[in-house]
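Lecture notes, structural biology module. Today: joint structure prediction for complexes of four components.
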Amino acid sequence: DTSIAVDALSQEGLSEEAVQQERDAAVSGGGGTWEIAVGGGKKKIRRRKGQKKVVEVDEEDELEGGDDDDENGDTGGGCYERQREHPFIVTEPGEVARGKKNGLDYLFHLYEQCREFLIQVQNIAKERGEKCPTKVTNQVFRYAKKAGASYINKPKMRHYVHCYALHCLDEEASNALRRAFKARGENVGAWRQACYKPLVAIAAHQGWDVDAVFNAHPRLAIWYVPTKLRQLCHLERNNATGSSPISGIANNSAICLY
Amino acid sequence: DTSIAVDALSQEGLSEEAVQQERDAAVSGGGGTWEIAVGGGKKKIRRRKGQKKVVEVDEEDELEGGDDDDENGDTGGGCYERQREHPFIVTEPGEVARGKKNGLDYLFHLYEQCREFLIQVQNIAKERGEKCPTKVTNQVFRYAKKAGASYINKPKMRHYVHCYALHCLDEEASNALRRAFKARGENVGAWRQACYKPLVAIAAHQGWDVDAVFNAHPRLAIWYVPTKLRQLCHLERNNATGSSPISGIANNSAICLY
DNA sequence: AGAAGGACCAGTGGTCCGTA
DNA sequence: AGAAGGACCAGTGGTCCGTA
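The predicted structure, tokenised, for the full assembly:
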């Protein structure tokens, strides 16, 4: 029975398209596929990026049919495999990922989508006189999922927040890093790690106050500062100071690490 | 064994006085009394307000001995009654409550104390490079308790937040309300209820944005807007608008409810 | 191996309701 | 009755680790 999924959606004022797609996903046996679950106005962008079938032979149907891997022959029945988003690869700015991969422009686009979902949640809250979130909270992720953006989830977005931060704060540096890591053939994890260092340098110039750095940028202010970035800034501040941690905070302009 | 309470305190850099008092409370059999648990630098203020023994015959010891009510004769043993703070009564500005009561100046003073505890928590967090609370959170209440201010607790502070808000935002109106309700012999609950209306009026003048009203005042911005005040503002906005809730927000200056 | 995300967990905001 | 606050609860921020 699909009534639960449809009921949940019917309260949110979604397009009939999204409801229909969610219904299809529910019918498909509990698993569904990411492709099917992607709904509403956000789907177009995702489609554009999803250039599949480099090795595969099956032409995908827009609404039905799985994104079957070779080892999974269970196509005819009601049992889809549990599909995940394609992994990210390091791409240059403007470059579309080929194969079963997603590029970094697409990654950053997800942050913009989350911002739009937050704005919608805020508007609803204001209208109802309820307390209004200023950050991308669990509530926003839940809203995004109901709106059909099932490819957005909290662990992923939190994982790459600092990469998005660098993209917002110093797009040139971010682009240069992407090109360098692509040229070197580094994987996404290595690129992600490398994004921390320039951010710490930016924080250093702002008195080591990474919260202030985030809050000063309107698109970044809606994201929680990642724990690891905060810790790195704290460690570097104490190293850079060259004295007891007690002094801290005020000595920002004297020392430049990078 | 008192080691747990002492250990918890020893990490917070408290005065030995507070630790000793906590130990006494623990020894006293799990109950302890509020008087004993009150410790550290904050105690003085509390003492000043606590003018007891109007009907009672027992002179209180500063550190030992309960604040025994007539019906409780269990004084000699290790079993203290579970003491609560004296209830609030409506007092005029500057008036000290008599008998086993606390006055409203004392109530508002508790909010100032919480602010000081928040500032301490913030300073510790900044020093450690941890995320820094902007509001009076559970963490702050926990810190206050460990610091010996056991008379501060979350339900009480949340209960009277809007009364403190009126005191901050329009002290003249707050004082007038206190005098009027005292003159009429109203109880604290009635006074508390009456504090909502002038706050809604203030919010009305600020485009019904009660969050903005709180945030604009530095001592108030650290407190969460109470749910009921938020709801009242929302209801009044829709009533005042005289049309569909869709219009909302922009029509602030035209209509004055009070 | 490298990576995506379901699902868990400690501690939160909120306040009810057993207590005095 | 009026009031103080321990203690509970649903939903949070954070991220681990079983999964693909």
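Point to remember: The radius of gyration of chain A is 21 Å.
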